[in-house]
Automatic annotation (TrEMBL):
Keyword Membrane: no
Listed SUPFAM superfamilies: His-Me finger endonucleases
A Pfam family of this chain: Endonuclease_1
InterPro entries linked: Endonuclease-I, His-Me_finger_sf
PANTHER family: ENDONUCLEASE-1 (PTHR33607:SF2)
Transmembrane segments annotated in the record for this chain: none
Keywords assigned by UniProt, alphabetized: Hydrolase, Nuclease, Signal
Protein name (database record): Ribonuclease
Position of the signal peptide: 1-28
Length: 266
């Protein structure tokens, strides 16, 4: 069909809809398509094909088998997991995308430190081996940006964050830049499946609140689900999942391998 005929058809369709009083359907986000991984017949074999609470329970059993590291060991682990693919001397910082020297880890201005994406205070698990040192939600982050994020829940809007272009914050929520939205969602939902209260740690769960304080919940689930759809797993995120699995913890973030499982559970 020629360009002229395509344009004519579009004009005719729009006019016809107006004449008969119809509204053309709005474009909506397409749910994440089902994926297949090399782990489906091995690591995930007891989860594939399930949905809802059955899927969540199966994944919890699978990913709960993991090795734990100390909080001090997290420093060197992040230098590997968050390595800049374009500069092996640097790490890529969450919320800003800035590439910074691995040697600049610490607590001073200009340094990067260890960001708990699931805030420590949401369940009071601190930095003890377990949720406090789980690499699947720990990321290298600029010290000042990390401080601005604090323990806020996740939502849209607010004022621009200095040092993290594209990120926004208000009194009780934080919105990461677009390139990190899906990463954040999948890290939060990993934590909600991994920590179910059947060990020494609290039962972590997502909800739709932005005032969770010290309870073991993190919001907003509706926004996190949108972010999972909006920002699919990147090569950086997939490599990170592999490194944590092969070199540190021996477990995987299932929502990086199967982002469609977010909707299947929630």
């Amino acid at each position: 069909m020629s360009v002229a005929r395509i344009r004519s058809w579009k004009v005719w369709a729009a006019l016809s809809a107006a004449v008969v009083g119809l509204t053309l359907p709005a474009v909506t986000a397409t749910p994440a398509a089902a994926t297949t991984t090399a782990y489906d017949t091995t690591y995930y074999k007891n989860a594939v094909g399930k949905t809802g609470t059955s899927l969540k329970s199966a994944l919890h059993t699978i990913i709960s088998s993991q090795s734990k590291i100390s909080y001090d060991a997290v420093w060197n682990a992040l230098k590997v997991t968050d390595q800049d693919p374009n500069n092996t001397n640097n790490v890529v910082l969450l919320y800003s995308g800035v590439s910074r020297s691995k040697s600049l880890n610490g607590g001073a201005v200009g340094n990067w430190n260890r960001e708990h994406v699931w805030a420590q205070s949401h369940g009071n698990f601190g930095t003890s081996a377990g949720p406090g040192t789980d690499l699947h939600h720990l990321r290298a982050c600029d010290v000042q940006v990390n401080s601005i994020r604090g323990n806020k829940d996740w939502d849209l809007g607010g004022s621009a964050v200095s040092g993290a272009s594209g990120s926004y914050t208000d009194s009780n929520s934080f919105e990461p830049r677009n390139a990190d939205k899906g990463d954040v969602a999948r890290m939060i939902l990993y934590m909600a499946v991994r920590y179910e209260g059947d060990d020494a740690w609290p039962d972590l769960e997502p909800n739709d609140s932005t005032s969770n304080g010290s309870v073991p919940w993190h919001g907003r689930l509706s926004i996190l689900k949108q972010w999972n759809e909006q920002d699919p797993p990147s090569a950086f995120e997939e490599r990170r999942n592999d490194v944590i699995y092969n070199s540190y913890q021996g477990n995987r973030n299932p929502f990086i391998d199967h982002p469609e499982w977010v909707e299947a559970i929630w």
